[in-house]
Amino acid sequence: MDAPFTPDEVRRYSRHLMLPDFGARGQKKLKAARVLIIGAGGLGSPAAMYLAAAGVGTLGLVDFDEVDVSNLQRQVLHGTPDVGRPKVDSAKDRLHALNPHVTLVPHRERLTRDNALALFAPYDLVLDGTDTFATRYLINDACVLTGKLNVSASVFRFEGQVSVFGAKGGPCYRCLYPEPPPPGLVPSCGEGGVLGVVPGVVGTLQATETLKLIAGLGEPLIGRLLAFDALEMRFQQFKVKRRADCPVCGDAPTITSLIDYEAFCQVTLPEVPAVDAAWVKARLSDVVLLDVREAGEREIEDLPGSRSIPLGQLEARFGELPTDVDLVVFCRVGERSARAVALLRRVGFERAVNLTGGIAAWDEEG
């Protein structure tokens, strides 16, 4: 923390150094800090850029994915030339160009219960930029078990929320959400969409909270959830209390090691009969296509002649479907449709099958 600033650092951080209650002392805290960012996507992009620009000494980046063109609408760490590259490599190059004084540690791997505790150990706090419930619960539990603060956020469509979990005496993510939602009830951003600027706003709030926690400034969002509604341009705060009966951070915790989060969140898709796009295209006149996506998704792309019943309405509308033909069910990538097929076959639609890969695979088939 006492390492002197170089002349370039003094110029670079001059607006920080002149801040009352921050100054050189606050900047030295940033330089000594080690922050692990889980996810180099929509939330991780703005958060990483502002933390690097601010001079956080070491930034770890965890992401196993590659840059896809569909990411570029919101994941501003990456550019068109980066499509196909590992996200951690693209992020490292962008952040190094932004601030060469920051040490960047890429972890190109999927976060799991087997590696989480070891990954978290060298860092002071963790920033959760992920978009699945299983990973959020994993990050929460690993943070509590390792004593790390968890700057957590999520976004969906036009809304987002951010909070700080795992502080001493404060709540954890499980205190707010003791149980995950039923499978398929809350689509991911990949299925439900998100306005590109929303993760920019929320990820910047995550960076703000992280800088405050490192420097010891202001009132962090401990015990508070900040919700953002872009359409109404409104912020709301909600109190979040630590639950004495929380299985992780409560008075008598029952979860003392990392569990199977895929099973806990029922992420595993049901095994159902499936066909590929080529099989369907060869038999279009003999099958019924059932689209279980939301209405707004059909406006983007539709399969001619398909029927539409969103997954959430399926149980109430069984009577609209034939039972004596092959019923090919599809969604965007084949996840919601797999759950739909399992439901249909349980109630007697023995010829219902899933379109492997969904409408995305249909497009690739040509």
Could you walk me through the main structural features you see in this protein, from its secondary elements to its overall organization?
By secondary structure, the chain is α/β, with parallel strands linked by helices. It folds into two domains: 33-264, NAD(P)-binding Rossmann-like Domain (Rossmann fold, 3-Layer(aba) Sandwich), CATH 3.40.50; 274-365, 3-Layer(aba) Sandwich (Oxidized Rhodanese, domain 1). Helix content is 34%, strand content 17%. Helix 4 (44-54) packs parallel to helix 5 (87-98) and helix 4 packs parallel to helix 10. The mean pLDDT is 92.
Please summarize what this structure is.
The chain is of the alpha/beta class.
* CATH class (first level) name of the largest domain: Alpha Beta
CATH fold label of the largest domain: Rossmann fold
Instruction: Summarize the main sheet.
Output: 8 strands, mixed
Give the structural class: alpha/beta
Beta-strand segment tally? 13
Low-confidence stretches: none
**Residue share in helix:** 25-40%
Sheet with most strands: strand arrangement: 3-2-1-4-5-6-7-8
Compressed to H and E, one letter per element, the order equals: HHHEHEHEHEHEEHHHEEHEHEHEEHEH
Going by CATH, the architecture of the largest domain would be 3-Layer(aba) Sandwich
